[in-house]
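hi! just following up on the protien thing from before. the input was this:
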Amino acid sequence: MLRRRRVLLLGVIGAVAIVAALTSPVADKAVQEIALPLRHEDIIRQQAADKDLDPALIAAVIYQESRFRDGQTSEAGAKGLMQLLPATATYIARLSGGTAFESGDLATPQVNIAYGAYYLRYLERKYRGSDALALAAYNAGEGKVDGWLADSSADGTTFDPGQHIPFPETRNYVRQVLDARREYRRQYRSELGL
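and the predicted 3d structure came back as:
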């Protein structure tokens, strides 16, 4: 009787181990999706290619701004996946030659990601390829970053975004987006076409 229970117990343990081994990749992917979600990767890849941007950077901004939840609107009125203010989107429409833009379009992932990617590319060019400055401007506004750079230049110092961003929220935002970009590159290499 004892031997039969032992054999039965070993059989159950073996079966559980086999099921766990077979479902582990599925469970790992599910946990990954909860911790670091990715949606609309086709749009992200397309916009990254069109705008000459790192798709992991676009994904990281979306993650930080909305956690990939469509239809988000902040207290400040920023809309969509990349949390664009309607005034910023209107500015982007003017810069990009978009003539049919309406504020409601920001709820559409394609439009929101296209406009957010355009703005990121614009900021990258403005700040000569500095991801940190572009992200700081995305969060705090170009005027703030321009002011910080001007103050630093007037003082004869080099502005270091990691140390000199005076807004803790913006400093944390830049760090969190850059950290998320590293994770997106690591975890979603094939999905983002890296």
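The CA atoms of residues 69 and 81 lie 6 Å apart.
Residues 2-35 form the longest helix (34 residues).
cheers
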